């Protein structure tokens, strides 16, 4: 059993803060983005913790060297080349693509010499984390390792520190075995056995946990019990499902601050009396932003009653621009939005309002205003936007939700479900959402908000921690 007094140790690639270097060389801290950081940042202050993360940029590396991070954050200054090969080459171009089924398989992936160099860097990067965690964890501490960047770390840490309790958590979907087997055989095995080095492996939905179990069975020949204990080569790992929810207290308070009110007023001014369809995403291939725009275009082409009566507010924030696929995707998003505005826009009506610069208060303002929220990912571990919008909505929102988002397991009953590839069905769902009777919308929003907040971040974190430490809350 784990120590109940040692600080819990968290490990993730992206930490709670990242630094940018200004023209004058000054370092400015910024809150990290994405579902993982949103979830973990909200952990109660009562919990003593150490957070080990990677320096992601030159600004981070400088901050790490100058000791500018908080004492409970340890940023690893990994050599920039090793980091880039591990993060861009393996984590974001290989494992992310596999779990989100993103490959255009006639041409990609190609696992050749470059891949092997990247894989060696990924191993080195995971070893650096395991080493830092081994140094940071007090005897018997609980160590919670996050996501696909760190799939080898649990086993490496287990070898260095057999005394600690290790949890791993996947914030992504998990690929089904036939797709997972695209990976070279040794790599496919190494990723699975790496995670099985943990005492517990957590997932956002049962669907992803079962896919992981299926991969263990088919790729490793592991055995899986009815209650999802995976046994392989003498070790046993309990799989768990912890559906991260939205942080209602934080969101409702933050969404009513003056900066959000000001942005809401500006959006209202731009929209006028028209209805709104809102989406907020990183510009991420798996988020399916282009098909979302095409669905909106189809709606305007086929249902003329919406001409000049609706605005699509699409926030597509920058993400992973080191990868050419993401730069091309961003260009496609901009192009499609422009095409719609050229086709339908008038001097007094801009059908798509697209913003590509990250602005959290503006996102919250759009959440409050939305008549319809469009969340149509190809595949998504959870998707917190689907959970956040109903919580802060001012007047009720109709949610159009992909059946491939993890959030669908909890919100499916009160959302309008779509196949993310089917733009005609998505357009029909947008129409149904825009015309949903007000009382139905209100009651659905209430139920969506309840389901979305069933396991807020602090409870989500403690649930995993208690499961890992044998039910003992840590002090
Ligand atoms: C997802 C992943 C996180 C990641 C985030 C942002 O939510 O599960 O691990 O941090 O995307 O992506 P980035 O590559 O910018 O860290």
TrEMBL record:
GO terms for biological process: trehalose biosynthetic process. GO terms for cellular component: cytosol. Pfam families: Glyco_transf_20. One of its GO terms (molecular function) is trehalose-phosphatase activity. Belongs to the glycosyltransferase 20 family. This is Trehalose 6-phosphate synthase. It comes from Streptacidiphilus jiangxiensis. The lineage of its organism: Bacteria, Bacillati, Actinomycetota, Actinomycetes, Kitasatosporales.
